[in-house]
Write a structure and sequence with these properties.
Blueprint (H helix, E strand, L loop, with lengths): L10 H27 L6 H5 L4 H9 L3 H9 L1 H20 L8 H28 L8 H30 L6 H6 L1
Helix pairs in contact: 1-5, 5-6, 6-7
């Protein structure tokens, strides 16, 4: 009687699979958000980049009750989405073998999307407070605009940094090359 061989655990395949699943989940949330908020005119980024009460309220005043309701309910998708993109950016950066020797650059790059996600969560909390019936200080509108702006800058820097790091590590030996010597 022959004993079946146990399948050898393939760590790299598991990591790649987990990244693909996380990316697929993030993409599904992104498209669900886009579909859910498609009727908003002006759109959410226009609202995010207001820095005072008058600008914020001018955008909300243009929305119908249904559009305003869509804005309020989009947070049910946005909070899981921000966790997903923050985690994906971190894992993609730290698990890319090519970046293993560029530790300082990799560490900086790995923080961009998690920091953006944290700012996104703060921005969401501010927006929820700003649309509530509570009286809020005018400075909260400015703070929400600044937080959103920094978030968008970090999000834009991530693909630029990733491609830049990819380019400069093109010929850098990875951890497996060191094992071969």
């Amino acid at each position: 009687m022959t004993v079946p061989r146990r399948r050898q655990y393939d760590h790299d395949t598991d990591l790649a699979r987990s990244l693909w699943l996380l990316a697929a989940f993030g993409a599904a949330l992104f498209f669900a958000l886009a579909r859910h908020t498609a009727i908003l005119n002006p759109d959410i980024p226009a609202l995010q980049l207001t820095f005072d009460q008058a600008g914020f309220q001018a955008i909300i005043a243009q929305w119908s009750p249904e559009e305003f309701s869509r804005f309020r309910t989009h947070f049910y998708l946005d909070f899981p989405f921000l966790v997903t993109y923050g985690l994906l950016g971190y894992r993609l950066t730290v698990l890319t073998p090519r970046f293993a020797r560029a530790t300082a650059a990799r560490d900086l790059l790995s923080r961009l999307l998690p920091y953006a996600a944290a700012l996104d969560a703060i921005e969401n909390g501010l927006h929820l407070a700003l649309i509530s019936t509570l009286e809020v200080p005018a400075s909260m509108f400015l703070l929400a605009g600044i937080v959103a702006s920094v978030k968008w800058i970090l999000i834009a820097l991530f693909p630029l940094g990733f491609l830049g790091l990819w380019a400069v590590t093109r010929h850098a030996p990875g951890p497996r090359d060191a094992d071969a010597t």
